[in-house]
Prior knowledge:
Two copies of one chain form a homodimer.
Chain A: H1 7-21, E1 29-30, H2 32-38, H3 43-51, E2 63-64, H4 65-75, E3 82-87, H5 91-98, H6 100-104, E4 107-114, E5 123-124, E6 127-131, H7 135-142, E7 146-149, H8 153-165, E8 170-173, E9 187-189, H9 192-209
Parallel strand pairs in A: 3-4, 3-7, 4-6, 7-8, 8-9
Antiparallel strand pairs in A: 1-2, 5-6
Chain A binds a DNA duplex through residues 4, 6, 8-9, 31-33, 41-45, 47-48, 50-51, 55, 57-63.
Amino acid sequence: MTRKIPQSTVRRLSHYLRSLEGFEDEGGTVSSEELAARGQTTAAQVRKDLSHFGSFGKRGLGYRVDELRSRLRHILGIDRPWRVALVGAGRIGRALIEYPDFRARGYECVAIFDSDPDKVGRRLGDQTIRDAATLEEAMEDLQVELVILAVPAEAAHDVAARAVDVGVKGILNFAPIRLNVPPRIPVQDVNLVMELEALSFAISQAEEAG
Amino acid sequence: MTRKIPQSTVRRLSHYLRSLEGFEDEGGTVSSEELAARGQTTAAQVRKDLSHFGSFGKRGLGYRVDELRSRLRHILGIDRPWRVALVGAGRIGRALIEYPDFRARGYECVAIFDSDPDKVGRRLGDQTIRDAATLEEAMEDLQVELVILAVPAEAAHDVAARAVDVGVKGILNFAPIRLNVPPRIPVQDVNLVMELEALSFAISQAEEAG
DNA sequence: TGTTGTGAAGTATTTCACAGCC
DNA sequence: GGCTGTGAAATACTTCACAACA
């Protein structure tokens, strides 16, 4: 039913789910047209995206809102909780785990690590910051599945390798380097400065074109 | 020379520039092969990406490191400073403007706004947080070019519209909504929870496939 | 009637492969 | 001899358009 789904489709699926949030009419239906209008895409694209995972619309009617929502949650893998560890107790990591959506989407921060002795032992949210030296033991005990890697580039490879060794399944990487982990481990890179660069690129291009 | 450059190419250009950072051998050269190895792409892709902007390699030799670096900086529009304002003095925005790369890439935070009276007037870095009500006046005075929009979704449309009205040229948007600005204004959306969803999607898919 | 699901057509992006130049 | 620049081929992604059906 599903083979190789492009990243662009996954992004759109997240959007569709988010769009559904605005719907109070639980028992109602949405058409691909309506969904398309809320994301910036086309009705055909919506239908194609969804069709990769089965056909759960009703011709002439659209998609049942409540069913579509639960299907999307299942497809995105957020119909169950995820045990997440934050490594690097800086601002970004903290921003992320404090997002209301973080918890609302089923991500649960079960451990926070840092190597700075001044930070170790402090409270952060409902967690006490642990010494990064205890990473393996703690991650195994707590059955961590996802790691948010928010450490300096120099430390990132090491932390990633150790996390993968103890069975972590995926990494959200804020370090501006390409992690060298086995291909079975998905890594999602986030680089905020790069996003700014995309902006200055677009503006410069437009200016140059006149 | 350049027409419509895909987003994927722009991302890779940023990577190439970042790769060059590791090079001490300023006067030396890099081949497309080496560049490809540092990003996760192919030599042909590197050459194609660069060829959109002219041909500045030497056959048989590769690209001069120092020249390539300055070309990339020019292409990405970071061969000049950018005047940036942060709207929403929460953790993410602060994380971003405190990144060493933020300044190193020429982005200069010239104003910070928030609507929370408890925050207005406080210092943050080398800035005093301004009342969001004064946004138009301050942005015009300070000739802000880029806005980092890190406010709740409800406020985002309004802030974006006001910023565009006073001549802002681009927006980095952390609010999980589609901003409704004129098409000439580039908007770069960042949604960290969506990145996590891409991760749980990938893992769930792999698990389902067995 | 209205809207899905989907092959087929159309675009966009990547990869190939090789002539051309250092 | 080595490596770029680039058309041409291959692949990936999106849009079209329409049969199927609630």
